[in-house]
Amino acid sequence: MTMRVVLDTEFGSGERFAAARAQGGRLHYIAIAAALPPAAAVQDAQLRDAWPLNVPGFHRVILNDEVTLDLLVGAVDAVLPQVAARVDAFCLSADVAPAWARSLAKLAVQGATLHARAADEALVWALTAAGFVCRIAADADAGRRAVAPDIEAVYHSRKPQPAAQAAPVRRAVVIGAGLAGSSAAQRLCARGWQVTLIERHAHPAQEASGNLAGIFMPLLSKDDNIPTRLSRAAYLFALREWRRMGGVGTAFLGADCGVLQLARDERHAKVQQDALAQWNYPPQYARWADAQEASALIDAPTPHGGWLFAQGGWARPSSLCEAMLAACGERLQRVFHTEALDLLRVDDEWQVRGADGALIAQAPTVILASGAGAGQIAQAAELPLAKLRGQVTHLSVDAAAVPPLLPPLLTLVVCREAYVTPPSGGIVCAGATYDNDDDPALRASSQQENLARLAEIIPGDAVAALAYTAPLAGRVGFRVAAPDRLPLAGALPDYPNAGRLEFLSDVPRHPGLHCLLGYASRGLIWAPLMAELLVSQLENTPPPLEAALVDALDPGRFLLKQRRRAQ
Q: What range(s) does the FAD dependent oxidoreductase domain occupy (predicted)?
């Protein structure tokens, strides 16, 4: 089905969005707003339930498989250059500057329509120069025409326009059934793709995504850097998507119980408070909990307080993966207990083969989402990914044990250099280490490291005694991280065929081969948004992030940096 893309420079009360939605069909509505009104002011009940918090950046709201709303919070002159879309219709507010005309033309498809409210002569001339054929709107108020009538326009560029990209063949193979692969399968199936999911284990989420509890929370910084902006968008998108599934603790195991990130010392507490003051976040997103409140929350004295993320919490990744794969329905074919080791491009399709050379599956599109296992695939072997060992300690809540085991029984997640979760299924999780070795076995030294950090976070004799009384128990997993600690989401670079490179657009790619890798310890929040980004790239639809962040995630960024240094 053809999708209409609308760009509105003033969302307002959402009346134009409601009117566009009422026309039916598949709709992608991009709306720019300096600030978002509170959810209570939104009349549409479905939209009100999914309404984002008023924080800067791009907010993708998926209302259903036919209607997507992107709310872009910020000044138009800052936001517009970050939009990457092919727009069919523009709705311009009265404050649109003539300088924006060329930016609008770059987004317009041939024949795109435009309605500008109260357009002055300078804007009309600028739009005309950019390729829009303008006239006074038929329904413009005649009494206002002498001052600033509404303008209607159609885009007719004399310059050659890029050919419309052909619709993709909606068949894909996803390799890896952890958070990255399960999220990709779920989003692809929701868009009508047929997906073959290959996993070397008998069940999903058995490696890096196999911990009993993963933590979801954003990053904060005073300068609002790329990791901060990306984590904010990913965290809030994940929360919205999980609510669409039925909610944390209902659709899958976990709890949005809140996360308290304690300050390390007095200096760090000042840094944390300065970051909050700089951005004036809504308290539902992040607020300061002083030492008195923080001590009450953890039932132990803590001297400095910390950030409180009220909507953060923990989730069991395997449960989330199962829920996402169940939502795929009949469009998903599971090929488990099978390891993909070789890819060969034959007649515009990728053949996926195992160790014995036997064909496992084939499709025009393949997505590598196998974490540390991706390095065994020749086409991904040169990606600069590091494998980091992480040991989590499991503390049993067993007062009957001799001696009794008394881990902290918290009502929220608490973290600093390490983290500790509320009990679930009789287990408290504490961790995790960052080790540079390949040892898959539990070891006492890593447990002691976890318990020492736990005692620093939650002081008290009972917690300190765990270092001597807790049996060796837990889990070892191997995270995969890029040098810049950002995920890789997009088309896989073709290292052998790369020559001189100046821009990301110069990086050669393997046709139809993509990756979702490098999630490190933030897979819970990275996975939903990275999958949505990749699907938008596969379907040539507007991405859910500003252009600068999309570039920061491009798997070709390391090859580009490498060649720039060598040139």
A: 172-535
